[in-house]
Structures are given as structure tokens and as C-alpha cells.
Write a structure and sequence with these properties.
3 helices, globular
């Protein structure tokens, strides 16, 4: 796998879906991995991403641990040669 893209979300459902609408399928079709880390959102972003983008890996954190810790969750799961 050439690369992994990690996206963090905290109650930004619409913005996250818009972001994924614009690029996810293109990079997924190139063999890239897309990982969404949901930092304990309450807006249903994880469910919405799973429904609309089944090829995106969704990680749900039970609490909002912040930007760095959220990225670390994604990094631990990433399989790409570059992140």
C-alpha cells in the first residue's frame, strides 16, 4: 500500500463528509488507505462515514484525547509506506 491518510474528526460530520466526498474514492482507487479517527463525537460522524464510505477505516475513540493522540491512534492502524 503506497500511503495512508489519517483524518481526525470531532463533531465535524458535514465537513468530514465533504472532505471525503472530494477525495476519498480517488485515493482509495489508487491503493491508498484512508483512516478516520473520531475523537468521541456526538454528531454521528462515524456512522455516516461507515455508511457512505465503506472502504474507509473508522476508529472511534471513547474520549477526545486531542489532535496528537488521535493521530497516534491512526498511525498505529496505518499500513501505508507513507502516512
Amino acid at each position: 500500500m503506497p500511503a495512508s491518510v489519517i483524518i481526525l474528526s470531532y463533531n465535524t460530520r458535514d465537513l468530514t463528509l465533504d472532505c471525503l466526498d472530494r477525495f476519498a474514492e480517488a485515493v482509495l482507487d489508487q491503493g491508498w488507505e484512508v483512516i478516520l479517527v473520531d475523537n468521541a463525537s456526538t454528531d454521528g460522524v462515524a456512522e455516516a462515514v461507515r455508511a457512505r464510505f465503506p472502504r474507509v477505516t473508522v476508529i472511534e475513540s471513547p474520549e477526545n484525547r486531542g489532535y496528537a493522540a488521535g493521530n497516534n491512534l491512526g498511525l498505529r492502524r496505518a499500513a501505508g509506506e507513507a502516512v
